[in-house]
Amino acid sequence: MKFCIATVSLLLVISPIYGQSFLKNENNKTTVFFTKRDTMGKYAYIKGRVLLFTAKRDASPGDLLDKVEDRTEASVRLYNNEAVHEGDILYIIDDKNLVNAKLHVTRVFRSNPFGFLLSGYGNFRLASINDRVVQLKEDSYSKKGGIYKSRGDYYLNVGNPAKAIVEYKKALEQDKGNPEVHLELGYLYLKQGLLPFASREFKEGYARKNRIYDRWDRFRLLKGIVEVRYREIYETALPRDMRGRYLDEGIRICDEALKLYPDSIDIHYYLGVFYYRNPAPEDAKARDHLQKVTELNPDDEKAVKANIILSRLYLKHKNAEKAKSFAMRAIATDPYNRNARDILKVIEDSSRKGFIK
Known about the structure:
Layout: E1 2-4, H1 16-22, E2 29-32, E3 42-58, E4 67-78, E5 89-93, E6 99-111, E7 115-121, E8 132-136, H2 143-157, H3 161-174, H4 179-191, H5 195-207, H6 215-235, H7 240-260, H8 265-276, H9 283-296, H10 301-316, H11 320-333, H12 338-352
Antiparallel strand pairs: 1-3, 2-3, 3-4, 3-8, 4-7, 5-6, 5-8, 6-7
Helix pairs in contact: 2-3, 3-4, 4-5, 4-6, 5-6, 6-7, 6-8, 7-8, 8-9, 8-10, 9-10, 10-11, 10-12, 11-12
């Protein structure tokens, strides 16, 4: 369990004079260096200055001995909050523009007296109060990228995926980490059956999911990852070790998605199949998720498939009555379903021969 020591009020560490002069600074460009031997620096934007260093304390539940790591949390005053988000990586530089610490942003907020502030964690032993905090130009989010994103959305909505892809790629040239662009590209590639490309885009989006504020878009991202893994596992020839990793990831992402939308038919169906077709099947979990699919919408296409799997599952456990019941449910929705009729024939033949009751 992690928690932070309460910080001293910033009101006590900032003088009125400092506050007034601070606001005169602008979000200027500069060049920063990561080692003293660097001859070519990286372009960056100055975002603010360090106000305070505190300690992060790690403790396990029930543990009486805490481990305190000194100077591992920083508070920063921003010139403005443009292009700074939770999950971003910023850098602290000294007066010679040499990077002395990496800062992982955990919170961006506004304080009435002082404007925008952020807090983040890292190893700040070489940094000092009042050091400048910068964001690499390649990591900043461009407003122009948003324009290209909007154009891509337009072409997607009017049914021109080729032009949508062109505009989305232009958006990523301006804002390479935009998760919403990666999300839309992922679905475009998924629709075209380009699973490796879709997987790459969804992975990039997932790495920056904290920038996705819309709950539905977050869910779509998770669902996209699951769909890709499902198709890779069951529709492609994967090595056994890779198949196992993808299966574990698929189950984990499904659980994450259900926290956002607990009644998703698609996610319950994928989970049911994952558990049913697992090398070490978990029949009870498969049954529960597949039955949930049939309860949420009995007429859904996936409900028909779920009924067939449930029929096979009960047939596996030699419960002819239950197996027949779910097969009949599938036929009630899809009268010409061959799989369901084949199962009924197997049940009839096995019952006649006394293999099942």
